[in-house]
Design goal:
heterodimer, A: 174 residues, mainly alpha, 7 helices, flat, B: 198 residues, 2 domains, globular
Chain lengths: 174, 198
C-alpha cells in the first residue's frame, strides 16, 4: 500500500483522536464512516467484530483501533494506527496537564476542576444508559443494578464479578 | 476479598509499569473502575477528590481517556519518563493479547458458547461503570458548590447524552460552561467570606 494511502488513513485517525472527548467509543460512528464507507478497508461485520473484541479483551477500549489496523494491514497496520490514535493526543494532554499543575492557584483552574466534575460523572451515567438499551430483559437489568451496588458499597474483587458474569452468560441467564 | 496495600506512591519506574499492567489486565470493559479501586482504595496514591480531579481533566481532554489519565499519573510521580512508562504499561500487554484474539476471532469466538460469556461479561461491565459513577459522587466538592447544582448538572448531561444522544462535545461545552461559572461564583463568595473573617 502506498505512502499517500497511509498518510491519509493515519491522518484521519489522528484527527479523530482529537475529537474523542469522553472516550474512544464517542467517535466510533465516525471511525465507521472512514474505514467502512469512505475507504472500503473493512466490512461492517469486521468493524463490529473489532468493537466486540475491544470490549471483551482487557485494557482501554481504544485498542479496538489496533484490531481495525490488523484487519487492514496485519501487525504493521495495528501498530501504526495505534500510534496515530494515541501519540498526538497524548502529547497534547501531557502539556495541558503540566500547564494546569503550574497554575493550580488560579481561580479559573480551580473553578474548572470543581465545575467539570459533575459533568464527567454525568457522562459516566450516560454511557451506562446508552449501553443499557441493548439489554431489554429484566434479569439483565437486575444484574446491572446488583453489580453497581456491589462496586459502590463493597470491595469484592472485580475479577470475581466478571467471572460470575461470564458464567451467567454461558448459562444463557443474562 | 481484596488485599490491602497502602504503598502511597510507586517506588520506581518498574513498579509504575507493573501497577498499570496489573490494572489494565483486570479492566474488562472499563479500566476506570479497576484504576479507581487500585490507586485510591488499595494503594492510596490519591484521595477520592484528587482522583476525581485528574479523572475529570482526562475526560475533557481529547484522546482515549484512561490513557490520558495513566500519562498524567506517571508524569506526576516521575516526569516525562513516568508518563511514557505508565502509558506503555497501560497498552503493551493488552495490545499483544487483543492481536492474538483478532487473529483467531473467526475460529474461536463467533457463534460459539463464548459469545454468551462475552454477553454476560459486558452486562457486568455496564454495572461496574454505574458503580464507579456512584463512588465518584463522593469526590464532588459539595461543601463548595452545594448539593443541588451538581445534581442538576448530572441530570442535564444524562438527558442530553444518555437520552437524546447528542454529541459529548455539546454536553461538555454547554453544561461545562454553566457548571464552571457556578463553581467560580461559589469560590469567589467563599474567599470573600474568609477575608471578612480575618
Amino acid at each position: 500500500m502506498s505512502l499517500i494511502f497511509w498518510a491519509t488513513l493515519l491522518g484521519k485517525f489522528a484527527f479523530l483522536s482529537f475529537l474523542a472527548v469522553g472516550g474512544v467509543m464517542a467517535v466510533a460512528p465516525d471511525m465507521y464512516r472512514v474505514v467502512v464507507d469512505e475507504l472500503f478497508l473493512v466490512s461492517g461485520e469486521e468493524f463490529l467484530a473489532a468493537v466486540t473484541l475491544g470490549k471483551l479483551s482487557p485494557g482501554p477500549n481504544a485498542l479496538l483501533v489496533a484490531v481495525l489496523g490488523y484487519q487492514i494491514a496485519g501487525l504493521m497496520g495495528a501498530l501504526l494506527i495505534m500510534i496515530a490514535m494515541i501519540v498526538p493526543s497524548a502529547i497534547f494532554a501531557f502539556y495541558v496537564t503540566r500547564w494546569r499543575r503550574k497554575n493550580t492557584h488560579r481561580l479559573s483552574v480551580q473553578s474548572f476542576a470543581i465545575g467539570a466534575s459533575p459533568v464527567v460523572v454525568g457522562l459516566l451515567f450516560s454511557t451506562v444508559l446508552i449501553l443499557m438499551r441493548d439489554f431489554s430483559a429484566f434479569p439483565t437489568l437486575i444484574c446491572v443494578v446488583v453489580v453497581a451496588l456491589i462496586v459502590w458499597r463493597t470491595r469484592l474483587h472485580l475479577l470475581l464479578l466478571m467471572a460470575l458474569g461470564a458464567l451467567l452468560g454461558l448459562c444463557g441467564l443474562v | 476479598m481484596s488485599l490491602k496495600y497502602f504503598d502511597s506512591k510507586p517506588h520506581n519506574l518498574i513498579a509504575l509499569f507493573y501497577v498499570f499492567s496489573l490494572i489494565t489486565l483486570q479492566g474488562f470493559g472499563g479500566v476506570i473502575t479497576v484504576m479507581q479501586r487500585t490507586l485510591v482504595d488499595q494503594r492510596r496514591w490519591f484521595s477520592q477528590a484528587e482522583f476525581l480531579e485528574m479523572f475529570t481533566l482526562s475526560q475533557v481532554l481529547p484522546g482515549p481517556n484512561v490513557c490520558n489519565l495513566a500519562l498524567m499519573i506517571g508524569d506526576r510521580f516521575f516526569g516525562a519518563r513516568g508518563a511514557v512508562v505508565a502509558l506503555m504499561g497501560m497498552l503493551a500487554l493488552p495490545l499483544g493479547l487483543i492481536l492474538v484474539l483478532a487473529s483467531s476471532y473467526d475460529q474461536v469466538v463467533a457463534g460459539s458458547p463464548l459469545a454468551g460469556a462475552i454477553k454476560g461479561m459486558s452486562v457486568v461491565a455496564v454495572g461496574m461503570t454505574l458503580g464507579t459513577g456512584l463512588r465518584l459522587l463522593s469526590g464532588i466538592q459539595t461543601e463548595i458548590v452545594g448539593r443541588f447544582a451538581p445534581i442538576f448538572v448530572i441530570a442535564i448531561v444524562l438527558y442530553m447524552v444518555g437520552y437524546l444522544r447528542l454529541s459529548v462535545v455539546w454536553a461538555v461545552l454547554g453544561c461545562g460552561v454553566v457548571s464552571y461559572i457556578w463553581a467560580r461564583r461559589c469560590l469567589k463568595a467563599r474567599s470573600a467570606k474568609q477575608k471578612a473573617h480575618q
